[in-house]
Design goal:
284 residues; mainly alpha; 3-stranded antiparallel beta sheet; 10 helices; elongated
Length: 284
C-alpha cells in the first residue's frame, strides 16, 4: 500500500475519480486500449501523489533561501569589501588584515555548493513526473556547475597560501606574492563564470519543467526561464568579451535573485499546488 501511495500513475481522462484528492485508485485498463483500437489514443495525464514529492519541494524552497544568504555574503559582501579591482597590492593587504572574513567567505561558498547538490536532487524528485529525461539533464548540468565552482573555492585557498608568509615564499617579494594572490582570485572569477554557464542551462530547463508542471504559478516559472537565460547569455558573453562583466554584473543577477527568492518563499509557504495534473511533453 505504501508503494502505491508513492507512485506516479497514468490516468485516462475518461476514468472517474475514486481516490483521495480526485486521484483514481488505479489507472483504467480499458480506456487506453479502446482508444488505441480506434486510432485516437490520447496521451495520459500523470499525477504524482507521493508525499516525498511535497517534502522534496520544501527542501527545494529551504535550499534556495539558505543558498541565497550564503552566496550573497560570499560573492558580494566579502568580495566587495576585500577585493580592489586592478590593485593587487591593496587586495593583498585587505586579505591579510581581514583573513577571518575572507575565510568566512570561502566557508560560505562551500555551504552554498553543498546546498546546491541537495537542491539539484530535490528539484529532480519534484519535476521528474513532468519529464524524467529532461529533469535528469537539468540535474546533471547543475551538478557540473557545482563541481566547477568548487574549483573557485580552491583558488581562494591558493590566494591565502600565497599571502601566508610561509618560509618557502621568502624567495618572492611582496609585489610578486600580491600578484600571485590576485591571480588566484582571478581564477576564482573564471571558474565561477564557467559554473554560471552550466547554472544557466540547468536553471532554464528546470524553469521549463516548472512551467509545464502546474505546481507553481506560470508567471513565476516564466520569470525563472527568462532570468536563467539572462545568466546563461551573460556568462557566455563574458567568456568571449570579458569587459562585458563590468557593464552588466551584478545587475544581471537581480532577476534570478528575485525568482529564487519568490520560489523559495512560495514552496515553503504554500507548497506545491494540490493535485497538479502534469502532461508529459511528447517523447518524454
Amino acid at each position: 500500500m505504501a508503494d502505491d501511495v508513492g507512485r506516479c500513475v497514468a490516468v485516462d481522462s475518461d476514468f472517474p475519480s475514486g481516490g483521495a484528492g480526485g486521484v483514481p485508485d488505479r489507472p483504467s485498463a480499458a480506456g487506453p486500449r479502446a482508444a488505441s483500437m480506434t486510432g485516437t489514443e490520447e496521451r495520459p495525464t500523470w499525477t504524482c501523489s507521493r508525499p516525498t514529492t511535497h517534502n522534496a519541494a520544501r527542501v527545494v524552497g529551504l535550499s534556495y533561501l539558505l543558498a541565497l544568504v550564503f552566496a550573497n555574503f560570499a560573492e558580494f559582501y566579502v568580495a566587495g569589501t576585500l577585493i580592489v579591482v586592478d590593485d593587487a597590492a591593496a587586495t593583498a593587504r585587505n586579505i591579510v588584515a581581514h583573513e577571518l572574513l575572507f575565510r568566512l567567505g570561502v566557508a560560505s561558498n562551500l555551504l552554498v555548493f553543498a546546498l546546491d547538490v541537495v537542491l539539484a536532487i530535490a528539484l529532480y524528485l519534484v519535476l521528474r513526473p513532468v519529464s524524467r529525461a529532461l529533469a535528469a539533464v537539468a540535474t546533471a548540468w547543475r551538478l557540473i556547475e557545482t563541481a566547477t565552482m568548487v574549483i573557485a573555492a580552491l583558488s581562494d585557498l591558493d590566494a591565502l597560501r600565497a599571502l601566508s608568509g610561509a618560509g618557502y615564499l621568502q624567495a618572492l617579494g611582496p609585489d610578486q606574492l600580491a600578484a600571485l594572490a590576485r591571480l588566484s582570485i582571478g581564477a576564482h572569477g573564471s571558474a565561477y563564470n564557467i559554473g554560471l554557464l552550466f547554472f544557466g542551462c540547468g536553471s532554464t530547463l528546470f524553469g521549463y519543467l516548472w512551467f509545464g508542471s502546474g505546481y507553481i504559478p506560470r508567471a513565476l516559472a516564466a520569470l525563472g526561464i527568462v532570468a536563467s537565460l539572462l545568466v546563461l547569455v551573460v556568462a557566455f558573453a563574458v567568456v568571449v568579451v570579458p569587459s562585458v562583466a563590468r557593464t552588466v554584473i551584478p545587475a544581471c543577477f537581480i532577476p534570478i535573485f528575485l525568482f529564487e527568492l519568490a520560489l523559495g518563499g512560495w514552496l515553503l509557504g504554500k507548497g506545491l499546488r494540490p493535485a497538479a495534473a502534469i502532461r508529459r511533453p511528447p517523447g518524454c
